[in-house]
Amino acid sequence: MEKKKTSYGIWAISLIIALLFMALAGNIVLSKTTSPVARNYTINGISIDGLNRTQAVEKLSQYFNDTAETFSLTLKHGDKEWQLKGSDYKINSDIYTIIDEAQRRELISQDYEKTKEFLANANERDLVVNFNYLFVGLDDDINKIIEEVTVSPTDSVVTFDNKVDGHVIILDEKNGQTVDKEKLYNMINEQYATSSSVTLELPIIDVAPKITKEDNLLCTSLVSSFKTSVSDNTGNRKYNVKHALQSFEGLRVEPHQFVSFNQITGPQTQANGYKIATIIYDGKFQDGVGGGICQASSTLYNALLLAGRQIDDVQKHTLPVKYVPLSLDAMVSEGISDLGFTNNSDYPMFIHTYSDSENVYVEIYGEPLPEGTFYRTRSETIRTLPAQDNKIIDYDKKYSDKVLYKGEKYRISYPKEGYETQAYLDKYENNTLVSSEIIRHDIYRAQDGLVVEGACELPSEFSNEQFNIQTEKVE
């Protein structure tokens, strides 16, 4: 029986506490809606002194809706003029936010960060609501006007012309312009606080370009140059070399930017302008689209080495090529190999490419090397890999226009030696070698010679002496 009385006692006490808490909470809510919001406060000049929250909202809503009918904003710039009317916009219905701010200031310390969206300039008891907070969509229309008068700046541009001394042409930069939006809004709010009719000249500010002529002057020193000969190339091959290098003409490479040869030159296809010429595929010379593009990459590769630029990715050919020394070639093929490099200087660099009937040229412009410093490359053959002749019998009569009978021989190709080689990058200061770095170690295949012999028996009515059995002397 005692336990039951105790339980009832605890329950009664809990109920009393709950009722007291609910009464207190109700009193707080009631106080919030019926008590004055704040004393001696004005919002856009409208006093809310002594008003409760509901009364303050109604008074401000009425005032803002009334002023919307007469509010006009006229913006001018040069011979252009734009007029925006308050009646074309809805009034922000979230008036409670403004009232809450007044009450918050009355009860708590100031915190401008939470209210800077709609408070343009607030004294402790005089709140001014931004016009763009009141008129929904007005901010978007002002942004359109700003876009209309905004002029983008023009960066200084580097171009190249071989007819000009030094090849480099640097065009001047041009300032752009835009509207100082923060200043404009402050000006509008200042007038709007005292008048429903606001007329202003747009405050224009200059917009500086990112790249000036002075900037480009710092990074257009000729750092290196390299050329390879195309004098004995076929028409298509010569065209492909020049076409690939043209993709790099005037290319600006930002500091520490990585560049892929394959990405710059695009797909090595006929649709991308490349023609059929001799390529090296699977250790053999044969026709393919883009033949010659490796000469373009090798020319660029050597110019980059001489400029001291960082080489990230380079591959050799399977066979030696004649346009650059061994271990200084750069084989490129989509999905197989690429020439990748990085501008490892703190300034932009530029690539200039051009050609004549005899050669193709690559020049690297950028931050000059320290005075007296330059680079040289050299190639060294470690050993020679021997080649030999192979002889095949023409059973399928593939070469019947050359050989037909046994004993007739025709040389398809001569044997060519292979090589194991190394390449070095030597650094000089004031004509003194200060460092020598091994940058490549490669092996190029030997190429066996090929001799074909006829497969048919010589007719009995002919003798070897009567028939010229050897169509070509085979050594």
Molecular structure report:
There is one protein chain. This protein is an alpha+beta fold and 475 residues long. Among the domains are: 35-212, no CATH class; 218-367, no CATH class. It is built from ten helices and 27 strands. It has helices at 2-34, 53-70, 95-107, 131-134, 138-149, 181-192, 213-217, 235-246, 261-265, 293-306, and strands spanning 42-43, 46-47, 72-77, 80-85, 90-91, 126-127, 135-136, 158-160, 168-170, 176-179, 197-201, 204-207, 221-229, 251-253, 258-260, 276-281, 284-289, 310-313, 340-342, 349-355, 359-366, 373-385, 389-394, 409-413, 418-429, 432-444, 449-454. The radius of gyration is 42 Å and the shape is elongated.
Annotation field: number of helices: 10
- End-to-end separation: 129 Å
The percentage helix is 25-40%
The spatial strand order of the largest sheet comes to: 13-21-20-14
- Unreliably modeled segments: 1-32, 108-113, 117-123, 469-473
Main pleated sheet: 4 strands, antiparallel
Q: Could you tell me the radius of gyration in angstroms?
A: 42 Å
Mean pLDDT: 84
Instruction: Identify the overall geometry.
Output: elongated
Strand percentage: 25-35%
How many beta-strand segments? Answer: 27
- The helix/strand class is alpha+beta
